[in-house]
Automatic annotation (TrEMBL):
SUPFAM superfamilies per the UniProt record, alphabetical: Thioredoxin-like
One of the protein's GO biological processes: cell redox homeostasis
Cross-referenced PANTHER family: AHPC_TSA FAMILY PROTEIN (PTHR42801:SF4), THIOREDOXIN-DEPENDENT PEROXIDE REDUCTASE (PTHR42801)
Domain Thioredoxin, first and last residues per copy: 5-152
Protein name per the record: thioredoxin-dependent peroxiredoxin
Molecular-function GO term, any one: thioredoxin peroxidase activity
UniProt xrefs under InterPro entries: AhpC/TSA, Peroxiredoxin_BCP/PrxQ, Thioredoxin-like_sf, Thioredoxin_domain
Keyword field contains Isomerase: no
Top-level division of the source organism's lineage: Eukaryota
Amino acid sequence: MSHPLLNSQPPLDLPLTTQTGASISLRQYLGKQAVVLFFYPKDASFGCTQEVCAFRDKYDDFVKAGAAVIGVSSDTVESHSLFAGKQRVQFPLVADEKDHLRDAFQVPKTFFMAGRVTFIMDKQGIIRDVFNSMLDFAGHANNALKFVWTMA
């Protein structure tokens, strides 16, 4: 899919807070591993649970392919903590409550809700692929994993 940030480096220094309260940044992955960054609308909703669980179920394959997986929504740290615990999510879920990261990545609203878009960045932090679909919940993980293997 065409996206304005495709083949460019997005902001890497925005402070990100995960479901554990830990602070991370995209810069920490530079030179180390590819990053699959997926934006989803809402914790515990039907489609979002399917999407997050698809990434969870393929997580070991992403690790084998050399990629980190990070989920992002505008939910709170507390919401992410409950959701991640219930769904046994083993990767960071970032609480983007003010949509700073979503805005930086130019993730549009779709159907009057936060968009569902997955970005794949190489080890240099360059966005190499973008998948945008509000309805193909598991397709985000499937497409991301296929693309990550082409970079391995």
